[in-house]
């Protein structure tokens, strides 16, 4: 179907950064967006054009209310890495989508997935959710992103970048990585929702421009107009810092991806997609330096007021 034909889209995860970017793009394109949230009204992010339903993914009736009348759906799981809970969420979503007659569901796996099983909860819970959704028979398209550029516009990266020209991140310098913005995810999601003949397919999105840490720093330097150097951050240090914001359980789940990458077990896991998703989904992510140049980095200067320290999962 054309992306111009109005859809009624149930967006799971719209109060987060990834789902929120998708909800905003859908609303901009005049599609009707509904989302489920446990947040009180005063704590909900601004999503013009989106309708909030109070509820919980763990309650089947709440999820059925979200999907009632939905022609399409986009799903990003919350930062939960307990298999029992994730499986229950996925089953509730699948049953609600089938009951509503949803014509396509796009599942954002949050990350690329290794080919074989691992002991990393961030991979295996998303693999489990994919399997539940696929086995249910719901018309499914899966997108698996690499690493988000927006992770670098954060309280633990911004000040060092702006003040010292240091880009520290818990990926090996040598790991070739396809960096994607949340807006790029949203564009991939819209294409996955609307392009014909994609049911049953899985896409490693991110484009065909994989960068080493040094190349990433050079791109940031061009965008910022200053010298930038890359520093490998110890994943354990990253996890401890994240735990102060998200709690130890969630931090361990997120950091598991970086511990795995640091092990060298699959150095190309986050690399380019050989142009497959770019061709089929019609995507061409902007160069990193263009994304960098558009961000208001001055908010992270030590001379600026203290910014919002909300995490960007």
TrEMBL record:
<dbReference type="Pfam" id="PF05368">
    <property type="entry name" value="NmrA"/>
</dbReference>
<feature type="compositionally biased region" description="Acidic residues">
    <location>
        <begin position="303"/>
        <end position="313"/>
    </location>
</feature>
<comment type="similarity">
    <text>Belongs to the NmrA-type oxidoreductase family.</text>
</comment>
<dbReference type="InterPro" id="IPR051164">
    <property type="entry name" value="NmrA-like_oxidored"/>
</dbReference>
<dbReference type="InterPro" id="IPR008030">
    <property type="entry name" value="NmrA-like"/>
</dbReference>
<protein>
    <submittedName>
        <fullName>NmrA family NAD(P)-binding protein</fullName>
    </submittedName>
</protein>
<feature type="domain" description="NmrA-like">
    <location>
        <begin position="8"/>
        <end position="242"/>
    </location>
</feature>
<dbReference type="InterPro" id="IPR036291">
    <property type="entry name" value="NAD(P)-bd_dom_sf"/>
</dbReference>
<feature type="region of interest" description="Disordered">
    <location>
        <begin position="294"/>
        <end position="313"/>
    </location>
</feature>
<keyword id="KW-0521">NADP</keyword>
